[in-house]
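Example 261, ligand NAI.
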Amino acid sequence: MTTGCFHGNVAIVTGAGGGIGEAIVYGLADAGAAVVAVDIDAPALEALERGAGDKALNVTVLPADVSRPAQAEAVVEEAEKRLGPVDFLVNCAGVLRVADALSLTAESWRLTFSVNVDGVFHMSSAVARRMAARGRGAIVTVGSNAGRVPRTHMAAYCASKAAAAAYTKTLGLELAGSGIRCNVVLPGSTDTPMLRSLWTDDTGPDGSLNGVPSEYRVGIPLRRLARASDIANAVEFLLSDRASHITMHELCVDGGASLGS
Ligand code: NAI
């Protein structure tokens, strides 16, 4: 446990089959939470279920496509039926489609927004309605530093992450009076399957670490990629009581890559 004690809490984590989502699931479960792990990738969830079972952690897996409102609603309903009121939601499911802005297809744009924005909306709506009725809860959306700083070949991704952050903060404003905090964590380059999918050879991490001047991209001042656990630690902090007076905040975890912007 790193930032708090979550005994008696129920958490939903989307994108739980991916690198960062899995680290968040383990972090919360290690700290005592009952965690519902949601992902569209059923085999990844099965592997997570086995791993959590080996460690005797309280992790329930529910496959779902967060871009579908009916599936988002059903998964929240099922989570509460099995485990009780949901205290925390972490929106971590995401997709990245890389293309020059002028060759980006409408399909790639729509897919990116359907998961990175619509998914956040559907899951947050389903959870926050229930939280509001109870007067407590915390939501963290995993955005990206690319939602703040433009990156070449990532127009759809950058736009989607900016939208998800703006939505989450607006939700935080509207729900503050109901005792619900809504925050955003902005990772930079993090060593997961999503980042590795961009690498074509062994020099893959070099662009992240050293920067690419021709693309107006600075490197990482702290000189390493983030580990998934770096992001999970920030998420856990924002969910915990240690962050009880923090809402509508964007916490950037990128080793300085966006120069604190
Ligand atoms: P990942 O690719 O390892 O995991 C993403 C997960 O989301 C996958 O398990 C995937 O199956 C799931 N997913 C995709 N579409 C879904 C849908 N419709 N419904 C439910 N689940 C769906 O990626 P990673 O690195 O763990 O990313 C997690 C989050 O962090 C994403 O939102 C990503 O945009 C964000 N991020 C990642 C960075 C990185 O360098 N890895 C940098 C900045 C942000």
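Summary: The chain has a mean pLDDT of 96.
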